[in-house]
C-alpha cells in the first residue's frame, strides 16, 4: 500500500497494490497494521454504501460532537471526493483537498475527524463505500454549503443534483463556533 499525503495534514490517499490477470483482480482494501504504521490508528464501527447518479453531489457533511473519521472508496463508477478542514483554530481552516476515486484506480481516501466531507458523481452512476469511526448521530449532524465561495472548491459540475438539506446548508462563516470541532495540535 502507498500512503499519499494531501495538502491537508491528516487527509491521506491510499493506493493499494492491485494484483490482476485475465480472471480479474485482487487487492487488500484495509490492513489494520499497515494503516496503523501510516498513522491511521482508528477503529471502524459503521460501514455504509450509497449509489448515486451522474451529477449528484452529497455534502459537505460532518458530525459535531461525536465526529466521524471516514475511509471512503468507490466500488463502481467515478467520484470527485473532497475534504474540508472545519476545525476552529486550525492553520488550514476552510481549506480543502480533492481526489478522484474510481473503481479503476482503487484509491481510498482517509478523512479524519474534524473535517467535512462531500463527493460528486462524474460517471453515469457510482457506488460509494465508507467506513466510519463513530456511529451516525442525527443530533450531531452538520453540513456546510457545497459551493461556499470562501472555501472555493473546484467541483467538476456547476449545477449538481442536491438533497434539500444540502441545498440549504449554511456557509462555513454562518455556522456557530460551538457547532464546529476544535483544532488540537
Automatic annotation (TrEMBL):
Catalysed reaction equations from the record: dTDP-4-dehydro-6-deoxy-alpha-D-glucose = dTDP-4-dehydro-beta-L-rhamnose
GO MF term list: dTDP-4-dehydrorhamnose 3,5-epimerase activity
EC id: 5.1.3.13
Signal peptide (UniProt feature, chain positions): none
UniProtKB keywords: Isomerase
GO CC annotation: cytosol
Pathway: Carbohydrate biosynthesis; dTDP-L-rhamnose biosynthesis
Keyword rRNA-binding among record annotations: no
GO BP term, pick one: polysaccharide biosynthetic process
Residue numbers annotated as active site: 61, 130
Site (Participates in a stacking interaction with the thymidine ring of dTDP-4-oxo-6-deoxyglucose): 136
Highest taxon, organism lineage: Bacteria
Gene3D superfamilies assigned: Jelly Rolls
PANTHER family: DTDP-6-DEOXY-D-GLUCOSE-3,5 EPIMERASE, THYMIDINE DIPHOSPHO-4-KETO-RHAMNOSE 3,5-EPIMERASE
Family annotation (NCBIfam families): rmlC
Family: Belongs to the dTDP-4-dehydrorhamnose 3,5-epimerase family.
General function of this protein: Catalyzes the epimerization of the C3' and C5'positions of dTDP-6-deoxy-D-xylo-4-hexulose, forming dTDP-6-deoxy-L-lyxo-4-hexulose.
Subunit (UniProt): Homodimer.
Protein name: dTDP-4-dehydrorhamnose 3,5-epimerase
Lineage per the UniProt record: Bacteria, Pseudomonadati, Pseudomonadota, Gammaproteobacteria, Lysobacterales
